[in-house]
Amino acid sequence: MRRIILLTVTLCFLPAILFVGGAAAQTDEFAMANEFYENKDYSSAVRLYLSVLNHGAESANLYFNLGNAYFKDGDLGHAVFYYLKARRLAPDDQDIIHNLEFVRQFSRVQMEGVELNPLRTFFIGLVEGYRLGTLAWLSSIFFILFVLILCVRYGLGVSNFPVRIGAVVLLVLLLASSGLTSFKYRDDYLTRRAVIITEDANVHTGPSDQSDVELEGAPGLIVEIISETVDYYDVLFENKRRGWIKKDQVAVL
After folding, report:
1. Which helix (H) or strand (E) holds 144?
2. Count of structural domains, the chain
3. Whose C-alpha in 8, 43, 216, 234 is 20 to 30 A from the C-alpha of 33?
4. Residue 127 and residue 147 in one domain
5. Is 242 helix (H, G, I), strand (E, B) or coil?
């Protein structure tokens, strides 16, 4: 199966081979969705991509194609949502990164005065290009090597300079990789995020329509979910403004 492309001056949708499952029916459905996309029937393409997804298939390329189709169909909110889901599975994919950055420019509300935490930005820069599983495996390898060198030093009684230095280096690498793995897990999975998907998305000062409007949201804006009631999420925007938004106005990652 292919990743859909569209070439423009600024934005690239590159073609690639994609295996979304092993079922022939899903493969055929995905191919049909690609044909609908190429024929500019984007709503039908979205419908079939979602059907593949609902049958249990999941991949970065499937989410990527969904993002492309939603964007071409004029649905900015869902486009950003599926690009984010694609990036979670393939954080080093430059096509996904570029498309996400590109389509977010079309939001009619931009987050001015974004306050960046330098330390958090530094750690995000270290881990954003790696899958969580990759970091976890790296931590596991350093742990095994550290245990082995401890066995050499204390079990076999070898305590020369290279062994001592090796133990210190492996301990530092183990602590660093474990810390980055924990940060990646917390940032990607424990921190709940959502994307605004509706045009009229007023953000209120409280969890009620009768509360004052704090700000006007727009499709494509990404928020962090702080808490919730039955019908509302308490959300934090990237520029640190906070308010309550109806649950049906956002898609939760």
Report:
1. helix 132-150
2. 3
3. 8
4. yes
5. strand
pLDDT score at 2: 58
| Domain around 67 | 24-104
Percent of the chain with pLDDT over 70: 87
Look at residue 15 and tell me if it is in a domain: no
What tens digit of pLDDT does each residue of 44-81 get?
999 999 999 998 888 999 999 999 999 999 999 999 99
Residue 18 lies in a domain: no
Look up the pTM and report it: 0.81
CATH number at residue 237: 2.30.30.40
Q: What one-character-per-residue DSSP string does 25-79 give?
A: HHHHHHHHHHHHHHTT-HHHHHHHHHHHHHTT---HHHHHHHHHHHHHTT-HHHH
